[in-house]
């Protein structure tokens, strides 16, 4: 399973910052490890830290960007969109995320999340605070807000993530249908 996570980090760095950064980080990681065996996939978290340093970005911001990037991967986006008919519904069902993630990746440990809501605010309380997961979720929520076309403010507040929803229909969301797109001319049996 670590290979899947490391592969995601590699693809995130490559698609967001380019092959040059990936190669530079790979070389630094290899020098630090003493060899090139295993490549970037052998040290995903270390590579993310090294990329953050090279880009002069806080690690937390890199992890948020990784979460946002994940929402642009169509199979992941589709799984996330099945969680709610609108952005608020999506947020209110995020307490189901650990169980859903476990179905796809049984070894992945997602901290439990409790959801509380008010008129325009949704609180996601991480019962076992893990700052990396918190920042990843902030990025994921940011990406899904864009996907739904919602305008909101997202902030970490101790062990919680606060989402103030200002306008759920601020922009046109990305097209989503429960049925998969079937190419023209395909015969379904």
Through-space gap between termini: 35 Å
- Strand arrangement, major sheet: 1-2-4-3
Shape: globular
SSE class:
alpha+beta
Helix content: 40-55%
Query: Might you state the CATH topology name of the largest domain?
Result: H-NOX domain
The major sheet is characterized as: 4 strands, antiparallel
Question: Roughly what fraction of the amino acids lie in strands?
Answer: 5-15%
Q: What is the ordering of alpha helices and beta strands? A: HHHHHHHEEHEE
CATH class of the largest domain: Alpha Beta
**Total DSSP helices:** 8
Q: Low-confidence parts, pLDDT < 50 over ≥5 residues? A: 36-42
> How much is the radius of gyration in Å?
18 Å
Averaged pLDDT: 85
Count of individual domains: 2
Assigned CATH superfamily of the largest domain: H-NOX domain
**Number of DSSP E strands:** 4
CATH hierarchy: architecture of the largest domain: Alpha-Beta Complex
Walk me through the structure.
This protein is α+β, with helices and mostly antiparallel strands and 189 residues long. The protein has eight helices and four strands. It has a four-stranded antiparallel beta sheet with strand order 1-2-4-3. It is globular and about 55 Å long. The model is unreliable at 36-42 (pLDDT under 50).
